[in-house]
Design a protein that fits this description.
With 390 residues, the chain is α/β, with parallel strands linked by helices. It folds into 2 domains: 204 residues, Rossmann fold; 158 residues, 3-Layer(aba) Sandwich (Rossmann fold). Helix content is 40%, strand content 24%. The protein has 11 helices and 15 strands. Strands 7, 8, 9, 10, 11, 12, 13, 14 and 15 form a 9-stranded mixed β-sheet that branches. A 6-stranded mixed β-sheet has the order 2-3-1-4-5-6, with helices on both faces. Helix 4 links the parallel strand 4 and strand 5. The longest helix has 25 residues. The N and C termini lie far apart (59 Å). It binds 4-hydroxy-3-methoxybenzoate. The site of 4-hydroxy-3-methoxybenzoate (VNL) has 13 residues, from helix 6.
Length: 390
């Protein structure tokens, strides 16, 4: 009995060793990209994957002498699935980097795996402030809700908005948006009539909007995750909130470039604060948008796409800097402090916090060439995540 199990263990070890050898010999550099490709957050998965593939097509798949292999997994935005997939990617596929992460709960569920296996984890989409504190191996190329929300709370009271109601998706990024917007708005002398929270899964905005109408604020401040903005806009207009004199403001998630052009002229004039607009007027962004649309049947890149594109940049440059030799710790060190021009504008990865520092833009929905865009009209430069000062 004992002998038999010993033999089996030996056979298994040989197999495992053979698999490791095969991996060592092919000298590939593997990136495990975990995204919601189906389900409620599928547009985020589609945008990030398309951008990652565009970056690879433009920059080749041999970097620092290593052949880069991308392994895409669909977590359906269920955090337990994200975690299991990450475990399999680390243990079986021996990925060198984990990347993607469409929503905050998926990133948080996976953080311990990054820590235990010393695998850099590049968050390309999720945006709750605390994510980067969940593991010293996490680097972020998306944004944080406090970054965006604070800029709106500074702009609004200077522009005739004295009384607001806030409406946020009831989980990490929504709670961040609410907290940082309200705190700063009150500090600036504003008044918050009520703070409403809607469920993250299958939200019904109608009863909440009815309440907002009754409260008659100057503006409704909204955070909903990418993909939910069109539903909010539709309900807002159907209820005649704009005609009742209530303005819609928010972080740029609500006027997401993935959906904005289909929202109709009712969206004209909506002001939001965010780090990326497809209409950002730089040569680099024009090139990015054109190439992205060409490769994706005219799909307009949104802020999720730019997070994926820049995330690949951070990974490629770390691989180059370590000459293809780096383990997790060396790669992580080479990711920290990277500074470069993104299609969004200048950005860098703060070496202390591993979080993104970037401009936040105030933008107004306007027509350009017959299409709806978030047109930038003001820039708050080099914004660090305000959540890191607490
Ligand atoms: C998150 C934040 C997700 C902002 C989003 O869209 C977003 C998140 C999916 O951290 O879960 O727009």
């Amino acid at each position: 009995m004992y002998k038999k199990s010993l033999l089996r263990a030996a056979a298994l070890a040989t197999l495992a060793f053979a698999a490791m050898q095969a991996h060592a010999q092919d000298n590939k550099f593997r990136i495990g990209l975990i995204l919601p490709m189906t389900g409620q957050q599928a547009s985020t998965g589609r945008q990030v994957e398309a951008a990652v593939k565009l970056y690879m097509a433009q920059n080749g798949d041999t970097v620092g002498g290593r052949k880069v292999e991308l392994i895409v997994k669909d977590d359906t935005s269920i955090p337990d699935v994200t975690k299991r997939l990450a475990q399999e990617l680390v243990v079986n596929d021996k990925v060198n980097v984990l990347a993607g992460f469409g929503i905050t709960p998926s990133a948080l569920a996976t953080a311990p795996i990054a820590t235990q296996s010393k695998t850099p984890l590049v968050v390309m989409a999720a945006a709750t402030s605390s994510i980067t504190q969940a593991s010293p191996y996490i680097v972020r190329t998306s944004f944080t809700l406090p970054q965006a929300a604070v800029s709106m709370a500074d702009w609004a009271p200077k522009n005739g908005i004295k009384k607001v109601v806030t409406l946020v998706s009831d989980y990490g990024p929504g709670l961040d948006a609410e907290k940082y917007f309200v705190e700063r708005f009150l500090f600036n002398g504003g008044q918050v009539a009520e703070s409403l929270r809607v469920p993250m899964r299958n939200p019904d905005f109608a009863p909440f909007l009815q309440k907002v109408r009754d409260l008659k604020p100057d503006a409704l401040f909204v955070f909903v995750p990418s993909g939910a903005g069109a539903a909010v806009m539709k309900q807002f207009l159907e209820r005649g909130m704009d005609k009742a004199g209530i303005k819609l403001i928010g972080t740029g998630d609500v006027t997401d470039d993935d959906q904005l052009n289909d929202m109709g002229d009712g969206a004209l004039g909506v002001v939001t604060s965010h780090h990326y607009s497809a209409a950002h007027p730089s040569a680099l962004n024009k090139k990015f948008v054109d190439a992205f649309q060409k490769a994706n049947k005219g799909l307009r890149p949104n802020f999720m796409a730019v997070g994926g594109y820049d995330g690949m940049r951070v990974i490629y440059e770390a691989l180059k800097a370590t000459k293809g030799q780096g383990g997790g710790d060396a790669l992580l060190a080479a990711m920290k402090g990277q500074i470069f021009e993104s299609p969004r504008g200048p950005m860098f990865i703060d070496a202390q916090t591993r979080d993104v520092v970037q401009n936040i833009y105030l933008r107004k929905v306007q027509k350009q060439d017959g299409q709806l865009y978030n047109v930038e009209f003001d820039t708050i430069k080099d914004v660090k995540d305000p959540g890191k000062n607490k």
